[in-house]
Write a structure and sequence with these properties.
Layout (H helix, E strand, L loop, with lengths): L1 H15 L2 H23 L4 H20 L1 H11 L5 H25 L5 H28 L10 H4 L6 H27 L6 H32 L5 H44 L1 H6 L1 H4 L11 H19 L5 H13 L4 H23 L3 H11 L4 E4 L5 E4 L2 H5 L1 H8 L2 H21 L1
Antiparallel strand pairs: 1-2
Helix pairs in contact: 1-10, 2-3, 2-10, 3-5, 5-6, 5-8, 6-8, 8-9, 9-10, 10-13, 14-15, 14-19, 15-18, 15-19
Length: about 425
């Protein structure tokens, strides 16, 4: 008995502080804030409406189920225990939203539309009937003594109130069981995004934990029917289980969005970092560093770096040697590189050679600019073997700057390609 009281102590302390009510409420509110822009923007999407309804009803459940709010509701309305059918109604509506969410989520916006509509109508009608029955049973029950924490067990044997308690618990347990089963089946399907799969895992564990809430409530109620006192399951374990379940469900909704956002941020920063070698090489061409804005977003910094590189490549275009690029490509293939890597290495060798030629000639920037403008942005020229000019294809350089920049990191490979690419030209010069 002493051990039982010690076990009950922390749970009772948390209940007294209402942690089991406001903590999940805060997490659910955070999830609702994260989802709200999408819900408002795409309100016609039934899936988003189900998500919005689920989060809204979940927040309302924990707001109105707190002992302080229950006492306030009873006092304002002047009806003893009127908060009971109201909280039961919110729990029932939340249970319906669980089912609607999974129905629309699994079938998708274009799949099994008629089947989805039938399932939606069935869920709405069934749970609406449960809500009506809850209020009718409460009107018929005699519950004059206000019970803020233990109403379910205190009135477990009262006619009509007994049936009401069993009805809302059954509706909640059935919905939770079906939702848990469908979510865990869905997790095992192939082709799911990693973040979505993790979100579904949190949802599955959260819904499964909700079954502990129902089990604790049912056990306490049945114990009252048989003359036993297990009210601590109702007043301590059930609220704690609901707190954990709601927190996990909220995290399940937040994880895919936060994960997607972090992945996008990481990809943008990674692309910006990958372009570093090529940007540094282009400083000789541009004659200055790329513009730096400390307060600029990651996307803006990436756009500025890409623009800086492409502008410099356009200035460099008249020094690009297409024959060298062809020889470098063949040399890279001969060295065992795959076609994509060979193309990037050949472009890197060509750009490095053009930068060296530009540094040796030291042309005036205004002359270069005039030549680029006269070319109209459509024709780029390169020095040919006789000192004349020929058209150079810069489309690959302008569109695949990330691959070229990545190739610049492998100095040993570039050196090997340049050596092999220069060998035929040196042999030709020796024969001549």
């Amino acid at each position: 008995m002493t051990a039982l009281r010690l076990a009950e102590g922390p749970a009772r302390f948390l209940t007294d502080l209402y942690v089991t009510f406001w903590l999940p409420g805060l997490v659910l509110t955070a999830a609702l804030v994260v989802k709200l822009p999408s819900i408002l923007k795409l309100w016609r999407d039934p899936l988003l409406r189900a998500v919005g309804g689920l989060l809204l009803f979940a927040c309302a459940v924990f707001a109105f189920a707190a002992p302080g709010t229950i006492a306030w509701t009873n006092r304002v309305t002047g009806v003893p225990n009127i908060a009971a059918p109201w909280v039961y109604t919110l729990i029932t509506a939340l249970s319906a939203c669980w089912l609607l969410l999974v129905v629309h989520w699994r079938n998708g916006p274009t799949g099994h539309r008629e089947k989805t509509r039938r399932a939606t109508r069935w869920v709405v009608r069934l749970y609406a009937a449960v809500v009506v029955a809850l209020w009718v049973l409460f009107a018929l029950a005699d519950v004059p003594v206000e019970r803020v924490r233990d109403l379910d067990t205190y009135y477990a044997g009262t006619p009509f109130m007994r049936e009401e308690i069993v009805l809302y618990l059954l509706a909640q347990a059935v919905s939770c069981s079906i939702t848990t089963w469908l979510v865990w089946n869905w997790i095992r399907t192939d082709g799911l995004d990693a973040w979505l799969r993790w979100g579904l895992r949190f949802l599955g564990v959260g819904f499964a934990t909700n079954l502990l809430f129902s089990a604790a409530k049912f056990t306490a109620v049945v114990a009252r029917w048989t003359g036993h006192d297990l009210d601590w399951l109702n007043t301590n374990i059930a609220p704690s289980a609901a707190c954990i379940a709601a927190t996990l469900v909220a995290i399940g909704f937040i994880v895919p969005h936060v994960g997607q956002y972090l992945r996008e941020r990481w990809l943008v920063r990674r692309r910006h970092r990958d372009l570093g070698p090529l940007a540094r090489l282009m400083r000789t061409v541009a004659g200055r560093r790329e513009p730096l804005a400390l307060r600029a977003t990651a996307e803006m910094r990436l756009i500025r770096r890409e623009t800086y590189i492409r502008d410099a490549l356009l200035q460099l275009s008249r020094f690009l040697d297409e024959d060298l690029r062809a020889r470098a490509h063949d040399a890279a293939l001969a060295l065992g590189h795959d076609p994509g890597q060979a193309q990037a290495l050949a472009a890197a060798v060509t750009i490095m050679d053009a930068v060296e030629v530009l540094a040796a000639e030291g042309p005036d920037a205004e002359v270069l600019g005039a030549q680029v403008r006269n070319a109209g942005g459509n024709e780029r020229h390169s020095v040919d073997g006789d000192g004349g000019t020929g058209e150079a294809d810069t489309s690959y350089l302008l569109t695949e700057i990330r691959a070229v920049s990545a190739a610049l990191r492998h100095t040993e490979e570039i050196t090997a390609v340049r050596t092999h690419a220069a060998a035929p030209a040196e042999s030709m010069s020796a024969h001549e």
